[in-house]
What we know:
Strand content of chain A: 15-25%
CATH superfamily of chain A: HIT-like
Helix content of chain A: 10-25%
Structural class of chain A: alpha+beta
Largest interface: A-B, 73 and 73 residues
Oligomer: homodimer
Shape of chain A: globular
Number of strands of chain A: 14
Largest sheet of chain A: 10 strands, antiparallel
Distance between the termini of chain A: 38 Å
Number of domains of chain A: 1
Amino acid sequence: MPEIRKDPVTGNCVIIATERSKRPHDFTRPYELKRSENCVFCYGNEDKTPPEVLAWRPQGGESNSPGWTVRAFPNKFPAVTPDGDPVPFEAGISQVMAAVGAHEVVVDSPDHFGSLGRVSDEQAEQVLLALAERYKTLSQDSRVKYIQVFKNSGATAGASLEHTHWQIITVPVMPAAFLAEFAGAKQHQELNGTCIYCKIAADEIAGMERIVEITDEFVVCSPYASRFPFELWILPRKHEADFGCLNKSDLKSLGCLVRRTVRRLERAFNYPPYNLVVHTGPPEKGFDIFHWHIEILPRLSITAGFEWGTGIFINPTSPEMAAVTLREIDPDVRQDES
Amino acid sequence: MPEIRKDPVTGNCVIIATERSKRPHDFTRPYELKRSENCVFCYGNEDKTPPEVLAWRPQGGESNSPGWTVRAFPNKFPAVTPDGDPVPFEAGISQVMAAVGAHEVVVDSPDHFGSLGRVSDEQAEQVLLALAERYKTLSQDSRVKYIQVFKNSGATAGASLEHTHWQIITVPVMPAAFLAEFAGAKQHQELNGTCIYCKIAADEIAGMERIVEITDEFVVCSPYASRFPFELWILPRKHEADFGCLNKSDLKSLGCLVRRTVRRLERAFNYPPYNLVVHTGPPEKGFDIFHWHIEILPRLSITAGFEWGTGIFINPTSPEMAAVTLREIDPDVRQDES
């Protein structure tokens, strides 16, 4: 029997359409073959990107040369512009503001054919440390209202280049999606005196039916009102509003856990397209009740007319079934079955 | 210079990334070839669908037999269930309700290789009359809070069957996307004493820069804060909250205009995937200030991590450029160039 479930934070509804229930092998899709030709993110092509803003070269070496493990640089085709002042919206029907901000790329492996799920644990740690360092630097800009850290993997998930990478975009407005989550968290805080995300993490650990992995610092679960089949959240067990406040030890743990979680999806669906999205409080003060977390959205289904019209997602896989499937997968197997 | 534009109704922001500006020929994509094998929506296979709930046979004929021009029946794999009571959500973290509702398919042409843009004007009229008739019938069910009428065209827009069709899904909850539009309309009404959609229609006609077509009854324009490249809205010039209240004459005009508008996209992008979404007030009373309209969302770009994280869509094509392109296309040419 199909169910309507309500997201406990935003109140958004989803339909868990169990009649259409799908198991992993039902999600057939063309495998996105990598080609490697003339990749601007590969060693030797550092001059084809804008100059780097961060790079780690364990063996040393010059800027914008090979030998890096992680490398960040401005996006050559940015969606926002670094120069200008974001003059606030004025009243009226046609409200507009310069899209002032930074748009950076963080390449998380020099291996063109690599994937985040197969990098070494040390590499995974370095990736999160690099993202956090860029996050902190970008948050110094007083024009920045919000920093979106995300990863698109696979062409059908919006990755225009196939070499594994993350992106960071800063915007001069407070995004609606963040405000909706913050409003839900605030309402729960006012009614109950507690953080709703802390409660979700604790409830999921107590119930176990949607848990994929638990570590000392984090919970990985398929959320109760999953919009996407096999959607996963990584929730920190310690309350912290801002991704930029994580210490080195937390970032390293997170890096390993992100890799493990992505690896489960890679093994379950033969490298599915996915979006990995960091949800964080903004750099400015006053949002301490928020609880940063990561959402991983496998793109195994298609958002279509019903979803665009209603905002209600139809999900053919219950999060309980998703969790059972994914927690049985060993994320430490980096070799693919042939 | 990229701009952040704010939707005048919902307040949602989009980035019009003019630096990434794309013209029609930049939107290359694989053409979705139709195969026709064993199509359950074709003549002769009427027994392979659930029994029809509406069908028009100009020459007469038995139910569930060939000879129809438009045919509606319950979806064989419904996302909602017809039986049961939608007991309201209770308090708590895990709120759930039976997804009670109807899920119907309306096949808008017997021609497997047909498309909505190429049907005759008479056929286009019949399609809208059929949709409205089903809408009215479904709105009699007191469990129904909202009726979503939509069309997915093309596999990458979520159409699981390639034979042209529409869908109608009723839900026992008021969808978040409707409530957001209604809240914006209400706020404008309270501040200005007028309907914001009426104002948008009038402003667009006055400004002309985003207009694709104007008729006595409707305006077709690319909206100021378009989320998708070549997004189009069909706005009625007469204020009316509920799609179900349209009279026969309006429905016939609308049918022809929907066909013309879809034909422009078909000709510009060689049958692009798209979602066509009716936005209407709900059947229940109290929503008269709403203004029903249609949104057509060509799926030429990919909604990715940034959009899911922020709710801010990055659109590489300004609506002004989209309107110029589409209004120059003659929608009365039904023949494709070879």
